[in-house]
Amino acid sequence: MNTVFGGVGMAVDRMSFVVFNGTVDKLFPVAIMASGGVAMNMEVRIFLTFWGLDAFRQGQPQRNFKISKDYEEMGPAMMQMLAEKKVPSWYDTLKTAKELGDVKVYACGMTMDLFGLKKEDLDPIVDEVVGVGEFVEMAKEGKITLFI
Amino acid sequence: MPDLSELKIDRTIDARGSFCPGPLMELIRAMKEGKVGDVIAVLSTDSGSKKDIPAWAQKAGHEFIGVVQENGYDKIVVKKLK
Fold this sequence. Notes:
With 148 residues, chain A is an alpha/beta fold. Helix content of chain A is 41%, strand content 20%. Chain A has a single domain (24-147), classed as Hypothetical Protein Ychn, Chain: A (3-Layer(aba) Sandwich).
């Protein structure tokens, strides 16, 4: 693992995400903020847990069109708007960010065990399976950590 | 603002119709592919680009040359410095 340690009180240019939600409307900000991080030359570290990890199961990025319950009635209209305006999917946006910058996507080990998943059950955009402690260790030196 | 009409543009990225962060990400890709000294113009209709691109150029160590408001879009010009 490539972890850069700062000194006392020194933060690393790192943006970390805990992605708990797996609905499209929540995955969009993950991909867009990650792109912003890449643009500003930050390391981006994404930890997928629960429904966030479910959204990265093999095939899910292409077939998941779920929207948060709060905005459910607006889902079809949002999907249509995104298609009409040819907005790239959250997945393609994240993939571009990963091609252009230092983005790592981690799967939560506990969720993997709970759902009975193996690394090969996940989309190849996922780099590796890590434990929560390891991720917190990475995030603690960063400047920005988001829970989505 | 320098006179951008006389500036030689090496590559133009037409990102019109593309939404944030599309134009910026296309520019970053073009910058990686380009060579030092290249002047790259991004055509953008998205409202974030004219703010995002100068901020990115400063952070990434490239020269932000300027923005020209064209008919219905912005032309944002940067120079690759490294």
